[in-house]
Amino acid sequence: MAMIAWADVCHVLEATVPLYAAMIFAYACVRWWKLFTPEECSVINKFVSKIFIPLLSYQVISANNPIR
């Protein structure tokens, strides 16, 4: 029976904690601190979906070596 090593758990936490921290911070900025209006959030969402995600996808795909 294979057990999950503590090092593996640490690697998973190192990858996921910053993402969840950023999501919680963004939620707090909008919901509690009122730093962004709903219109500004809509513009940010459009920017992310139409510009940032395609550029990030291109970077990940172009850095991949399928022959290796």
UniProtKB/TrEMBL annotation:
Asked whether the UniProt record includes Membrane among its keywords, one would answer yes
**Cellular component terms (Gene Ontology):** endoplasmic reticulum; plasma membrane
Q: What is its main location?
A: membrane
Keywords on this record? Answer: Auxin signaling pathway, Membrane, Transmembrane, Transmembrane helix, Transport
- GO function term, MF aspect, one: auxin efflux transmembrane transporter activity
Q: Which domain of life is it from?
A: Eukaryota
Cell compartments where the protein resides: Membrane
One Pfam family of this chain:
Mem_trans
Membrane topology of this protein: Multi-pass membrane protein
> Coiled coil as a keyword?
no
Instruction: Please give a single GO biological process term from the UniProt record.
Output: auxin-activated signaling pathway
Q: Which InterPro entries match?
A: Auxin_Efflux_Carrier, Mem_transp_PIN-like
Q: Which family does it belong to?
A: Belongs to the auxin efflux carrier (TC 2.A.69.1) family.
Name assigned to this protein: PIN-like protein
Q: In which organism is this protein found? A: Vanilla planifolia (Vanilla)
Please name the taxonomic classification of the source. Answer: Eukaryota, Viridiplantae, Streptophyta, Embryophyta, Tracheophyta
